[in-house]
Design a protein that fits this description.
Biased composition (Low complexity): 303-325
InterPro entries: Polysacc_lyase_14 (IPR048958)
Helix content: under 10%
Organism: Exidia glandulosa HHB12029
Radius of gyration: 18 Å
Number of helices: 4
Order of helices and strands: EEHEEEEEEHEEHEEEEEEH
Domain Polysaccharide lyase: 56-273
Distance between the termini: 17 Å
Strand content: 25-35%
Protein name: Polysaccharide lyase 14 domain-containing protein
Mean pLDDT: 80
Low-confidence stretches: 288-351
Amino acid sequence: MFPLPVTSAWSTLPAAPGVNGVDLVKLDNTVLGVTKILHDLDFSVVTAPGSAPNGTSAWLATYPKGSYNPTGEPRGGIGFYFPGPSGHDWSDASTTQIMFSYAVYFPTGFQFVKGGKLPGPYGGASADEAFACSGGRQEDRAGCFDLRLMWRTAGAGEIYAYVPETDDNTAALSELQNTVIDNSYGVSVARGSFKFATGDWTAVAQRVKLNTVGQKDGELELFVNGKSVLQATGLEIRTSAASVFRGVHFQSFFGGSDNSWATPIDQQVHFAGMSGAVLAAGASPNEGKAAFPLGDSSTVTRTPTGSSDLPTGTGTTSGGDSDSDGTGAAGALRVSGALVAVVAAVAAAFI
């Protein structure tokens, strides 16, 4: 049923035969607890396009021509936070490892420009500290974490991480090929380790393991279309036990802090299949779970880097454009559902 042992799970995917032990919930602001909608940006629930199964709902984000950075004009994209549905509180101190998954649809011809932000989990020592853990924040970085994703030029992907600024974190993250450390903003983790499809879905699933306070045993791992494309270990994601998971920072915009990042035309992106789980003790591959679906050793190349001018789109890739071999664009939703989208049985709906 599950690719990993879980203690609770939820999904906005449509009901499918054989789904047990997971709450299937409606894609709805009230159900998920949506709060702090950025600048009242307009977003709507629509029918998911492409190969999504019948009945799948999606959030539609719109990026007007010339939009970049959520504080600029014209404003575009999508931005809010949510803790998840009732009964799935990630902020309990006993929750130390979660997985958050969704699928994103960039239409054929999408112009990626220089890059843009995508959703991911977040947390902190208090709700207020956690909410403010982005946008170039430098104060109290030790009291929060924000782990959104990002697309770069030509759809190159990465984890865009705000974590405590320590030498140990810098060293651990820099072991991943094409990690870029920017002391003014977040860390670009393994830039170009995969590529977002156009004209089809790309399914991503992020596993986050909080460190034991005082130790450096935190982990980040990202699956793309069912394959582990990067894993960072030896991290200090928090410095106190008060820093816990708070939910999902669901944000997307072009940028970037200046208009060189702006979209040259009106564009749209769909998000579907939002799913989350609290992972049980022993779910980490470093805790002896041989069945954990890691990629082979070639999916991660460990070479120290640190230059902020690294090329985008380089490094080991996974997925691809809409004419790839099916493990990327054409097969994105069904493969990821089978392996990492929290509920394996739901995958049948995408076949």
